[in-house]
Amino acid sequence: MVKNLFCSLVLLIFPFSTAVFSQQGKVDITFNPIDDGVKGDGFDAAVRTLYLQSDQKLLVGGEYSSLNGNLSSHLTRLKPDGSVDDDFSTGTGFSGNVYACVVQPDGKIIASGNFTAYNGNSCGRLIRLNNDGTQDTSFNTSIGASGIIYDIALQPDGKIIIVGSFTKYNNVTVNRIARILPDGALDTSFTTGTGSSLNITNTRILANGKILITGNFTSFNKIPSNKIVRLNSDGSVDGTFNIGEGFNDNVNAVEIQSDNKIILGGSFTLFNGSTAERIVRLNEDGSRDTDFQGTGFTKDAVQIIKTDDNGNIMVGGIFHRFL
Question: Residue 78 and residue 156: Cα distance in Å, rounded?
């Protein structure tokens, strides 16, 4: 089966109430990517990103090079039953890991990671694919980013926010965040000054068009910003987003609720000087949402957070108990 990244999973049901429940999930036996155990047992290395398409097909990206013993280099598409979608062909695939992928409204797929080639063609850690897996050559990233792109976010206008460990894009200094035009060129109207000196690992486009980023940085464009900052659409720091002292350790996961509140998870134990054990919810202005009760999780870190259509919060990571 698909290898899990996380050792624990808990379902928290309290976006609009104070009750907290944990729930053990059951395996959906109708979803089976294993080839009856004949050729192997799923992916041979870690899965790092999942994207569910509108047709319920699932894009799976990561560090793996094979699925069930067959070559499947870092990005695969599965049908709703878990079988490989043969209509999506990546040829020899990626030269390195895939850490993020999104699908445009037109069905084209944008992927990022630490790869520098796709199916033998140069691409600097960012690429756009057609729905069948062929490279969209109208999106030119032959130079691209100088380092890893950990996350991508698609704006409604088709521009793409990328974040990671890179310091240049198309040989222009951008310091770990950039905005890319629909043709793959750098958007020079997006100016972030000195940017971040440390990695940015997550980005989200908010309903108001502003850009949320998180990571292990302590400042952005020389402004103190412990692990989280909100940017205006031009790349400047949004001073109305007030996090006080921010977080004392890394933020690994971000989820935006339908009411625009922000759920954050990571290895942190404090937010703005108060206990927040690896999970916290913020209001739109950056203040802590005190309706989100409980002190958090014991040990290690939260790595992923998702919400469902009912507002339930699903949390994955390496942890033991919710307190």
Answer: 26
Sequence ranges of the domains in the chain: 1-29+250-323, 30-249
pLDDT of 31 higher than 90 = no
Of the candidates 93, 91, 96, 141, the residue with the CA atom closest to the CA atom of residue 114? 96
| Topology, domain 30-249 | Methylamine Dehydrogenase; Chain H (2.130.10)
**Residue 178 to residue 166: CA distance in whole angstroms:** 10
Here the tokens at position 322 are 């919710």
Extract the tokens encoding 91.
């040829």
**What is the sign, positive or negative, of the torsion defined by CA atoms of 198, 202, 203, 204?**
negative
**Nearest residue to 76 via CA among 66, 114, 213:** 66
Alpha-carbon span 305 to 261, nearest angstrom: 13
Q: Which of 30-44, 47-61, 122-136 has the lowest mean pLDDT?
A: 30-44
**Quick one: DSSP state of residue 186?**
B
End-to-end alpha carbon distance in the chain = 31
> Could you give the CA distance from residue 75 to residue 60 in angstroms, rounded to a whole number?
6
Residue 152 phi, psi (nearest 5): -140, 150
Residue 149 has pLDDT above 50, yes or no: yes
Our CA angle for 268, 272, 274, nearest 5°, is 75
Quick one: tokens of 39? 């050729």
Angstrom distance (rounded) from CA 81 to CA 99: 23
Q: Please report the DSSP string for 256-292 in residue order.
A: E-TTS-EEEEES--EETTEE-BSEEEE-TTS-B-TTS
**Tokens coding 138:** 């109208």
- Measure Cα distances from 131 to 38, 63, 226 in Å: 29, 22, 39
56-86 pLDDT per residue, tens: 999 999 999 999 888 889 999 999 999 999 9
